[in-house]
Specification:
This protein is an alpha/beta fold. It has helices at residues 10-22, 33-42, 59-68, 84-92, 105-119, 152-163, 171-178, 189-200, and strands at residues 2-6, 26-30, 47-50, 75-79, 97-100, 126-129, 132-135, 140-143, 146-148, 206-209, 213-216. Strands 2-1-3-4-5 form a five-stranded parallel sheet, with helices on both faces. A four-stranded antiparallel sheet has the order 6-7-8-9, with helices on one face. A two-stranded antiparallel ribbon has the order 10-11.
Length: 220
Amino acid sequence: MRILLVEDDMQLARGLHQSLRAEGFTANHVNNANSAWLTIQTNECDMLILDLGLPDMDGLSLLKKIRQHNLRLPVLILTARDSMEDKIKGLDQGADDYLSKPFDVNELIARLRVIERRLGTATTSIIQVGQVSLDSSSHQIKIANNVLDMPRKEFMVLKILMEQAGRIQSREQLESKLYEWGEEVASNAIEVHIHHLRKKLPEGFIKTIRGVGYSVNKGH
């Protein structure tokens, strides 16, 4: 899940970036509305965290621009404007959720997971495919009640595949959700992660569709 954070408070942005990464999200940051709009047009984004008090344009104006262009990008407003009138206005103009500052980062993460589940096939934080169970809230993976240890990137690859069970994910799609802009990516990085995952998972759990990508079958 690639998140674009639009926040001009650099200290807050750095802290949020670290928290999002720790929770398995891929996060990128811009500090103004014009950069956000350019980024949305030129890069793949799955979700937007939007501050309203931006230096070049009010966040609601950016949100209105996004919706006028029929972009279905999920938007969570994160702002110091905490009146009921502000919340209603933000939601009415197309925000998917609204969280006032100061906020609890755990609540923010929980709200992001709700949006994430809506985008995928999972309905709770626990995704079950065959014998494999993945809990996105506790970062725990079990096979028939046996807990697996798994590095962050491998966990993220498996999470993407299990959320999209029954759908093929290309190498490019996996890379776009796994790595941040400017992050150096080895040409065989995804193949290496898949190779390591296959050693830990039931035989045949991850299918290779030659020349297309990878998938996990719903009824595995």
